[in-house]
């Protein structure tokens, strides 16, 4: 009996070590042909990640040899998880990548180039395509685009004596006040006060004030008078108690929109779907509108591209799946499932989009004038500084001018 | 065990003030008990309340209708089964490793005399004081370089031999009479045999304590698994729950789903604790007494 | 070595030798006992090291090397690219540390962590001691019941507990706000308020950890002989005096252990703000560990994060030594 446990212990110790040492290095190996039996791993994000699995199954019916395995990752952690996966060399074959993240992953040399004979630049919205281009090479195929517009409760607006959508910043402020004072809602609107992604609601204010993220020489322009003005306008809602000054990490505005606590907010087109699913009683009681104008009504273009990672051994299959997802019919189909706007211009002529619910009109209109967020390698950090700059105004009570100067200083080292 | 001590303590003073004092004492303790248990009760009740009752005013304390809707939603959103499996597998492996490795060294430190014993013991004591967060960055780099990100090995190996376990086992091993081991040696038994067949069975209660503590610690471990796994399929329960709890696209702000998640994470541990509570309190007390 | 290595071949040989030695006479053998044992023990290097190997290998790989590596990294600009290629990182001297001194976020996090520890540790240890003293005053069979209840939060995952408490403290539908509305009050937004967020986390931490302190104190209290108490009472000492003059001094070693362990744990506080507040509002609950996680694993400034880790480690070391000093001196 005696030798067995001793051997067991010894092997346990040595296998531990062996395990540690043996697993070193496993680079990109042989490419698998698109005709072989294989599993394609894809990371999806946020709302879209949830729906992508469905498309994977449909694709599998047409290509029985390719099984698509979709892993949805939350937006809050997806950046760090993907970057860490690049560092560790443990990547999926493909991912849906947010437009603002492309710059960083191109810089990291983690993405495979796009075959521009198969995927043609001219088929896509230029803003979407250009976000994935560096030195003439494209690294991502645009999958969907989105932009931000205004959601507001029409029933409560009526109660508050307002019968048309707010067209200017002043209208918007008046409506928020009317909601609170006359319709007795808890808040007048929801401006995200702090934490990850705050920039998404503030940048529309910046662009509409006539401001820019970067000036013509590529330096941050966050202390411009326009930026200060955008911060002032954003902050006014907190100062007057029209928007909550803090929200829990998983705050979902749709819930408060449904209860009427937050009768107005700025967000993207997928919210139409969320409202239908989670607050069905709101049918006919809300509307969307283009962003109320400061100097102009200007939103930003976001969205996601499909990327294939350099180390993937299933590039041919990845190309097939990308082709499938970006085909005109699939783009229209995707719109029906996820209410994501097609990145391929031809898809907008499909019946699904022609007959879209009126709530989507605002987004379509907004898209025509929306500006791109510049592809920065350090956008994650850059945007975190904006998040913190806004929090300085909303939570610390710092003056917009001081906060703008702080943002400028904090971002200067992050460009170029 | 301690009942006689109380008898001698309280018996001579059983006059008038004593009854009121005892009532007061129990009052304070019951209040404390309610405070300690309230969050768990709240969690359990909320997990079974309908969405309507959750936000109702005036408050609905006991659900009108008990519903499993939050659990159904949770299972759709979160692959609880595989996270449960990950957590369990990792915790079992960590526990087994600790039982063997910590006992080995604990035995050596208590019962064997070898050159370098003192420095090794000093090392164990130092390791007890080192906060895990200190090593996070290089550990991530190492594990990345070894290609172990997203592997069970990465979650198990760094915790496979805890200093606390060594310390605990050493304390218990010291109490084994030397004569017993000596007699075995005289009979010609090898050290491994003595350790495995004589010492280990004698410290079974300590092994039980160590097993429970290690298992729990591993089960509740958070920061390292958060860093060492990227693929959500490899998340342990706490990592899955935490990333779920900060993701509005998942919870949609529903506290019911969150409470259902917390309920599933907390319940098994609480049940095990209540069943085995004797070992817990014994173990922690022994570990604390130097 | 040859005789100690427990090889099967050596066994009968050795036994016979020892047996014959022992058979020579029992009384001299016993007298020589200690010496004989030392002789035998002094030749156990082989098994001793063999038994130490698994721990030492793991310790070296996952503790010693990383501790040194963190230290080295804290003087470099270790970034994302270096994860794949660690040796191409560049030394930048003390730059990370000088940057930390000017880093408003880091200083805030250091302040918050200190706040958490300075208020949280005494609260936790005090509550644990209070509970232990009460439970030690003869509640009979109920003692186990209360002990289980008070200890229960300790065994549960901090993440789960943080999720639950986030809802308990929810200003709209939470437990506390519901209780408040029952008596016609309204509850503040605990986690959304700069002033209340940190105290809320502290109360929660005390709630979760007082069980450990309680169990340790209970063990310590049971170590105090009943006669000592009895003697004090016969001398006319009241409850308070007995507590002050007998319980507290005799519990000092336990108190030292509990305080040191709680402090180390609290200085690393991470899960609570990660789940409940994301460090907000206005960084009021940003702790060093959370800030380090952001720098290290969101932006991958690993050199900088390493410097943070070392500052925290130094603080932990200093506080531990200070506690050892303060509490030990008084025991004498």
Automatic annotation (TrEMBL), chain A:
Origin superkingdom: Bacteria
GO cellular component: ATP-binding cassette (ABC) transporter complex, substrate-binding subunit-containing
InterPro entries (UniProt xref): SBP
Gene3D superfamilies: Periplasmic binding protein-like II
Signal sequence range: 1-18
Region (Disordered): 394-416
Family membership: Belongs to the bacterial solute-binding protein 1 family.
Protein name: ABC transporter substrate-binding protein
Origin species: Streptomyces abyssalis
Automatic annotation (TrEMBL), chain B:
InterPro entries, sorted: MetI-like, MetI-like_sf
One Pfam family, short name: BPD_transp_1
Major localisation: membrane
One Gene Ontology term, aspect cellular component: plasma membrane
Record-annotated ABC transmembrane type-1 domain positions: 84-276
GO biological process, one term: transmembrane transport
Topological relation to the membrane, as annotated: Multi-pass membrane protein
SUPFAM superfamilies reported for this sequence: MetI-like (SSF161098)
The entry's keywords: Cell membrane, Membrane, Transmembrane, Transmembrane helix, Transport
Protein name per its UniProtKB record: Sugar ABC transporter permease
Record organism: Streptomyces abyssalis
TrEMBL record, chain C:
Disordered: region residues: 1-37
Keyword Cell membrane applies: yes
Localization: Cell membrane
InterPro entries, per database record: ABC_transporter_permease, MetI-like, MetI-like_sf
UniProt keyword Cell membrane present: yes
Taxonomic lineage of the native organism: Bacteria, Bacillati, Actinomycetota, Actinomycetes, Kitasatosporales
Cited PROSITE patterns: ABC_TM1
Domain of life (superkingdom): Bacteria
Name by which UniProt lists this protein: Sugar ABC transporter permease
Alphabetical list of Pfam families matching this protein: BPD_transp_1
Family: Belongs to the binding-protein-dependent transport system permease family.
């Amino acid at each position: 009996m005696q030798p067995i446990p001793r051997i067991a212990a010894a092997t346990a110790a040595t296998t531990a070590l062996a395990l540690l040492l043996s697993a070193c290095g496993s680079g990109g190996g042989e490419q698998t042909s698109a005709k072989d039996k294989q599993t394609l791993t894809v990371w999806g994000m946020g709302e879209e990640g949830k729906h992508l699995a469905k498309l994977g199954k449909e694709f599998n019916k047409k290509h029985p040899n390719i099984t698509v395995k979709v892993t949805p990752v939350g937006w809050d952690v997806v950046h760090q998880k993907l970057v860490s996966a690049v560092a560790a060399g443990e990547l999926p074959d493909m991912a849906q990548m947010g437009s603002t993240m492309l710059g960083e992953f191109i810089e990291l040399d983690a993405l495979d180039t796009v075959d521009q004979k198969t995927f043609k630049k001219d088929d896509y919205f230029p803003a979407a395509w250009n976000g994935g281009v560096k030195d003439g090479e494209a690294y991502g195929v645009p999958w969907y685009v989105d932009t931000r517009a205004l959601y507001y409760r029409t029933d409560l607006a009526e109660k508050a004596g307002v019968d048309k959508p707010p067209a200017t910043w002043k209208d918007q402020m008046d409506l928020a006040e009317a909601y609170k004072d006359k319709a007795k809602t808890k808040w007048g609107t929801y401006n995200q006060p702090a934490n990850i992604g705050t920039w998404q609601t503030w940048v529309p204010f910046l662009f509409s004030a006539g401001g820019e993220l970067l000036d013509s020489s590529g330096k941050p322009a966050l202390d411009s008078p326009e930026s200060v003005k955008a911060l002032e306008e954003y902050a006014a809602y907190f100062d007057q108690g029209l928007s909550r000054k803090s929200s829990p990490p998983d705050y979902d505005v749709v819930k408060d929109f449904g209860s009427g606590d937050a009768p107005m907010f700025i967000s993207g087109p997928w919210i139409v779907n969320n409202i239908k699913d989670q607050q069905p009683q709101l049918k006919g009681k809300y509307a969307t509108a283009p962003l109320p104008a400061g100097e102009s009504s200007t939103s930003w273009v976001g969205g996601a591209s499909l990327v294939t990672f350099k180390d993937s051994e299933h590039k041919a299959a990845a190309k097939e799946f990308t082709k499938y997802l970006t085909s005109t019919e699939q783009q229209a189909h995707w719109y029906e499932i996820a209410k994501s706007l097609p990145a391929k211009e031809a898809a907008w002529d499909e019946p699904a989009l022609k007959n879209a619910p009126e709530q989507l009109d605002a987004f379509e209109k907004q898209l025509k004038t929306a500006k791109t967020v510049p592809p920065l390698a350090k956008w994650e950090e850059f945007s975190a500084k904006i998040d913190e700059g806004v929090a300085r105004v909303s939570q610390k009570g710092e003056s917009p001018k001081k906060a703008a100067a702080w943002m400028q200083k904090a971002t200067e080292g992050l460009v170029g | 065990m301690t009942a006689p001590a109380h008898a001698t303590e309280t018996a001579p003073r059983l006059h008038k003030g004593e009854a009121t004092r005892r009532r007061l004492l129990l009052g304070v303790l019951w209040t404390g008990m309610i405070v300690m248990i309230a969050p768990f009760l709240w969690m359990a009740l909320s997990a079974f309340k309908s969405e309507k009752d959750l936000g109702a005013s005036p408050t609905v304390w006991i659900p009108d209708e008990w519903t499993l809707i939050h659990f159904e939603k949770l299972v759709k959103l979160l692959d609880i089964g595989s996270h449960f499996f990950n957590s369990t597998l990792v915790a079992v492996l960590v526990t087994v490793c600790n039982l063997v490795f910590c006992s080995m060294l604990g035995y050596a430190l208590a019962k064997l005399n070898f050159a370098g014993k003192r420095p090794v013991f000093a090392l164990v004591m130092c390791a007890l004081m080192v906060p895990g967060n200190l090593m996070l960055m290089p550990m991530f780099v190492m594990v990345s370089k070894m290609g172990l990100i997203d592997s069970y090995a990465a979650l198990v190996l760094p915790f496979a031999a805890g200093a606390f376990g060594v310390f605990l086992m050493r304390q218990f091993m010291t109490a084994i009479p030397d004569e017993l081991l000596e007699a075995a040696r005289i009979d010609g038994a090898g050290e491994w045999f003595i350790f495995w067949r004589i010492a280990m069975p004698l410290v079974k209660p300590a092994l039980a304590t160590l097993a429970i503590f290690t298992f729990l610690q591993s089960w509740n471990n958070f920061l390292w698994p958060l860093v060492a796994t990227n693929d959500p399929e490899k998340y342990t329960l706490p990592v899955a729950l935490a990333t779920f709890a900060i993701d509005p696209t998942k919870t949609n702000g529903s506290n019911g789903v969150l409470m259902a998640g917390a309920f599933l994470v907390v319940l098994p541990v609480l049940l095990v604790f209540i069943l085995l509570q004797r070992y817990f309190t014994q173990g922690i007390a022994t570990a604390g007494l130097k | 070595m040859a005789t100690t290595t427990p090889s099967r071949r050596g066994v009968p040989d050795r036994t016979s030798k020892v047996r014959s030695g022992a058979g020579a006479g029992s009384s001299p053998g016993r007298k020589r006992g200690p010496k004989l044992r030392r002789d035998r023990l002094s030749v156990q290097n082989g098994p001793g090291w063999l038994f130490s190997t698994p721990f030492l290998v793991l310790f070296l790989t996952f503790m010693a090397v990383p501790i040194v590596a963190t230290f080295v990294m804290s003087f470099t600009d270790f970034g994302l690219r270096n994860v794949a290629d660690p040796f191409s990182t560049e030394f930048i001297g003390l730059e990370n540390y000088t940057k930390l001194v000017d880093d408003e976020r880091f200083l805030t996090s250091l302040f918050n962590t200190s706040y958490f520890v300075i208020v949280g540790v005494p609260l936790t240890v005090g509550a644990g001691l209070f509970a232990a003293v009460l439970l030690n005053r003869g509640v009979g069979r109920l003692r186990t019941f209360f002990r289980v209840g008070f200890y229960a939060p300790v065994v549960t995952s901090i993440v789960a507990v943080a999720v639950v408490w986030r809802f308990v403290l929810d200003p709209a539908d939470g437990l506390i706000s519901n209780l408040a509305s029952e008596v016609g009050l309204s509850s503040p937004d605990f986690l959304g308020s700069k002033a209340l967020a940190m105290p809320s986390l502290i109360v929660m931490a005390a709630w979760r950890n007082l069980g450990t302190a309680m169990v340790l104190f209970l063990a310590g209290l049971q170590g105090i002989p009943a006669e000592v108490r009895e003697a004090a009472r016969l001398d006319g000492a009241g409850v308070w005096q007995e507590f002050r003059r007998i319980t507290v001094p005799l519990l000092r070693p336990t108190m030292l252990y509990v305080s040191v362990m709680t402090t180390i744990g609290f200085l690393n506080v991470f899960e609570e703000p990660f789940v409940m507040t994301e460090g907000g509002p206005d960084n009021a609950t940003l702790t060093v560990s959370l800030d380090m996680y952001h720098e290290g694993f969101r932006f991958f400034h690993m050199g900088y994060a390493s410097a943070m880790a070392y500052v925290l480690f130094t603080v932990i070391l200093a506080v531990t030594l200070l506690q050892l000093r303060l509490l030990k001196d008084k025991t004498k």
